[in-house]
């Protein structure tokens, strides 16, 4: 039976990639050299905030974002989010 890792260890580097569009956000999370989570959410910051607050407390977060039609608005939302951490 495989050992499933549902959360990274404290202090571990976690890489979150967010593809931002008007209709949805696709979030990919990697740690330990492997993709661990991939999800698609409504285009709202609260989904990303909940994911980080419930799963990645105490980790070293790296965030990358790609935005399509309105990159400045997406960037402003993500910066506001990061400032609140």
Short description:
By secondary structure, this protein is an alpha+beta fold. It contains two helices and four strands; from the N terminus they run βββαβα.
Keywords:
globular, alpha+beta, 28% helix, Nucleotidyltransferase, domain 5
Secondary-structure topology with pairs:
Layout lengths: L12 E8 L4 E7 L2 E8 L3 H11 L4 E8 L3 H13 L2
Parallel strand pairs: 1-4
Antiparallel strand pairs: 1-2, 2-3
Notes on the protein architecture:
28% of the residues lie in helices and 36% in strands. It has 85 residues and is an alpha+beta fold. The radius of gyration is 13 Å and the shape is globular. β1 and β2 form a beta hairpin. The protein has a four-stranded mixed sheet with strand order 3-2-1-4. It is built from two helices and four strands. It starts with 12 loop residues before the first strand and ends with a helix. The model has no long low-confidence stretch (mean pLDDT 84). It has a single domain, classed as Nucleotidyltransferase, domain 5.
């Amino acid at each position: 039976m495989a050992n499933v890792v549902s959360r990274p260890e404290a202090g571990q580097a976690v890489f979150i990639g967010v593809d931002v569009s008007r209709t949805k956000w696709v979030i990919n999370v990697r740690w330990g050299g492997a993709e661990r989570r991939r999800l698609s959410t409504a285009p709202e910051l609260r989904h990303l905030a909940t994911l980080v607050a419930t799963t990645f407390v105490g980790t070293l977060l790296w965030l990358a974002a790609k935005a399509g039609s309105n990159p400045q608005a997406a960037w402003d939302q993500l910066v506001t989010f990061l400032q609140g951490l």
